[in-house]
## 1
Amino acid sequence: MEGLNWTRVSQFHLLGITDLPHLQPVIFVLFLLVYVFTLVGNLSTVAVVISDEKLHTPMYFFLGNLSLLDIFYSSVTVPKMLAGLVGEEKVISFVGCFTQLYFFHFLGSTEALLLSSMSYDRYVAICKPLRYHVLMGKLVCAQLTLICWLIGFLYSLAETVLISLLPFCKKNTVTYFFCDIKPLLKLLACADTFLNEITVMLVTGSIGMAAFFITVVSYVFIFMNLMKIHSVSGRSKAFSTCSSHITVVIFFYGTVMCTYLGPTSEGSIEKDKVAALLFTVVTPTLNPLIYTIRNQEVHRCLRKLFRKEKIWK
């Protein structure tokens, strides 16, 4: 009968990255610079892909979508985190918290699915080059991307509604810098969350494992095909077309696994902050660098774009 006396909270207190006042200004400046760099880097990638017809290929179409995702992804958490570092009020409304939770997992699951689509694109390019333009036509790429966004939208909607129905009355202090599943389920909900955890784990696990499985299988076939290439230069050239994607995939799944596959406790939440910072702040910043640092085609297009801007001015 105790459930009759439960009172739903109207807001949550986000403790943020650190509660040490002397570190907060330094962290604020650091992550503000990182966020600006994220926006500039990813917006430049989107602009280059759109403006240059030579980059109107499946690989760069997916890359443009990935950059767009990274802009939204970092913008879901970083601005609120920065506001908490400089302001005394570190609260977020109940609706605001679950809106943040929804968009964070919507964009995160969409990115996982998009990365699997990109791995399939690399598989077709390397293993079935003669049929590449048929199997990866514009319509197919558009459909794959739309499916990624749609599945991410529906999954996150179901997940957020399921968690929001819990009575949050244990406490309303989130020892995190944004609203995420682990602190909300384990540290806040005063009801039995076992069923919710199982449901979320099944839904999240099925989507995550499907995306991961497609990625792994694609690269298994890619490596098997590379082994058939006798010349070292030919093998190196073929591998260079997917090395950037492999790096992004390893970083993405590595940080996600560190955050969500471990046991949950007050201590583990603190450790999870580090991994969460990596895939919410650092990964969106590194992705455009990883894809462009050795990509001469993108370098050429960037120089061309900047020259146009100077002439226009």
Note: The radius of gyration is 21 Å.
## 2
Amino acid sequence: MPAHRMSMRKLKEVLRLKWVCGLSHRQISRAAGISVGAVSAYAARASAANLDWASVEPLADDELEAKLRLPANQNTQARRVELDYALVHRELRRANVTLQLLWEEYVEAHLGERTYRYTQFCQRYRDWAQTLKRSMRQQHRAGEKLFADFAGHTMPILDGRGGVAFRAHVFVGVLGASNYTYACATNSEGTHDWIGGLIGAMEFYGGAPSLLVPDNPRALIARPDRYEPGLGRTAQEFVNHYATAMLPARPRKP
């Protein structure tokens, strides 16, 4: 049985919600006030015992408990289902996805099989994540960060006669979680070009991120500082208006 013993009355209610009402394990979890993992574990136990609601409903508590009891050593011999570490790592980049949620889904996906407890699940994932290269360890949640900078090279904008009217600077914005990229051409790299590029990017993405991370541009920074650069008034008014925040990259640390 799971670590926190459930009363047979509650277990019957869990099975009724599953078999009679047809609720999902997540819906049963909310209705019964227990974890999805516990719902999955008991549902798997009942399935392994070839039970259905017609056979469970008339049983007394001790009779139901006896039918759900595993034979000796049955739960210790089988190997646990291994995690899909890359999938867990990728899913954690999505908004509102937690290890708790992914563990519950892992347990539900392997009904009747031996799975890891939540603490083991977390520790194994963290051990795996530690093996990643340093360049791969930075994680971003969906909608969290928008990185912005100007490309190093300008591009020619032609006039109607085939000549070069001016050389455009290329503003580039990238969402940290998905690498979804926005780009536009500007006349220069002044304050209005930075602000215009950021506004264009947010309109393109359909919303403002939690944090804007530009390179450390003089056009936006009033007080250059290696650790706490101060925003200029225009940049501060901009982030206030869009209810976001700006954290410029450290100088020479883009």
Note: The mean pLDDT is 81.
## 3
Amino acid sequence: MTHDAPLSLTEALTPNATRNDTIEREEPTQQFVLFRLEGRRFALPGHAVTEILGGEQPVYPLPGLPASTEGVIHLRGQIESVVYLHALLGMTPPSSPFASQMILMVNAAGLTSGVRVDQLDDVCDIAQSALKTPPDSLSEALRPYVTALFQYRESAPSDSADHDAVALLDASALFTAYQNGLG
């Protein structure tokens, strides 16, 4: 049923389920880069991730670096550090890189650095209304860096209800902690 004339107040208040016309509403979204560390899902804001590099990118270790720094990479004439988020988030860094790992180039808190992730899952838009406040029960190691949680469903058969919680990380807070020698 299409209306050429404006809806009456009664029609406007009638639930959509009882009418045949559809009302679409634009909802603000944010772009996120979803990835995994130790099988747990995390995301960074899309505006903070400037580039995604394959795991085969050579990383050169330097003596005396903190546990949160894997080494440096040479990227288009620039030397950039590569950070292990594992150490900043209270996880154990992998003993050696593996095939599914990627490096996300992140720009935040006045610093550009590579961030080693175990697996890249997706780059997607999430409705702002889907972002939930992190619970008080969040681990102490994650609390300073997680700004929100949201549910994410991978492309899967329609009968699958596989939703995973994703922790949205604050790139500026992570890089500030890194610059302050935490991790």
Note: Residues 156-162 have pLDDT under 50 and may be disordered.
## 4
Amino acid sequence: MSYILKDLTQAECFAVLEHGRFGHLACCKDSQPYVVPIYFAYAKGVIYSFSMPGRKVDWMRANENVCLQIDQRGTGKGWTSVVVDGRFEEFPDTDLWRSERLYAWSLLQKNTDWWEIGALKPQAQPTGSASAHIFYGIFVRSVTGRTALPVD
């Protein structure tokens, strides 16, 4: 079987983002790349996601430049891939960021397969206690994509 490779338009790339929920996030620290799978929700130029503390968050705090790759399998053996270059921004558990955290949660919780431990609604923590929930956004700087279509 033969394939034709086609570049996606910006509108086609954003359509993949709007319908996507799972991708691979790449970050880099001290010239060392790191790629992890994430669930996400996209709205108004921002990719929203959630994490617990760990390497991914530490590295994104050290270097805000990140990349997200989303793919879709087509019928047969075709595929579509979109790559987003963006800027990481954390939404800390403070009054200033409360509405952004709740908005991220509201988008993510629409799909039952996002990380179940994170399905608990964020709420105020007792004095002296910090929330382990880390909500963040990837602000889209650029987006590109390609699709491989089978040719009969």
Note: DSSP finds three helices and eight strands in the chain.
